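Narrative summary of target 7.
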Amino acid sequence: LEGGLEMSVNRECVPLTSLLDSLLQKAYHDLTVLAELLPRKADVERKVEIVQFARQTRLLLVRLLALVKWTGDSNSVQECAEMSALLSQQSWMYSDTADQLAHLSRNLLPQACMPNFSLTPALDVLSLGQYLRLPLCIRSRTTPSPALAAQERLNTLCLMECAIRRRLLSEGVPSSMCVSSVCNGQVTLRVPYEFEISLSVVSTDWSVPWRLIAMKVLVSDALADKPVLIHSLQHQYLHQLVQSRLFGDSPLLGTYECLHSFCLGLQLDCLNMQASSVCVCVCVCV
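Modeled conformation, tokenized:
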């Protein structure tokens, strides 16, 4: 704040040396112009011009003398100027604060009114110690649903199995796949020596795709130390790929083609490894 006041005061001040130089330059200029114009005028006019020049120059020099004497008390004047600047700045800040408060009260506060206090819930909480007016949707999202009874679970599984059978009859099962079982709300489809999958439904609406529950690859190498031929990451990727095929127009046919192609490639790899091992054994015997 003090630095700002000094800058505002210094902007209104002029150095004494600059003022003295300007005054002398003006007097010399006026005297030069007067010396050039006097020979062309009459005697009376020359006297009048000289008197006027002397009078004006004397007034300027008197003012300059008063200013020089005044500079002896310039510190007091500087303090007064700083006080005046401070008061002007405070006045501006008061005016700006008033304008901001008026803008806040007229434009922003009418839109920021608090809602009416909810008295009914407050009375329920104070009198009953609990609040019973919450919407039921909050309970359904935050409170787990109660477990089904044994008979309800059996009825639900029977309905799911009926929906699965109707859907199998409607969509048709590829001829190479056989239905191994329909129980516990899921159907098991099997292709011998290739794969086995378990599917289920989450809705009776046929537009909802099948849900892949489990998948097992039946291709194995009896001669290898590890009969499992695919890695867990490969199995996870294959599970996701089969689930994506179940979203298609012919879900069962697309699933069969996907898994059948994979199992054929796995069988060829297994056959290749067995043939390579037999060749190695023959070469060693020879």
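The first helix runs from residue 2 to 11.
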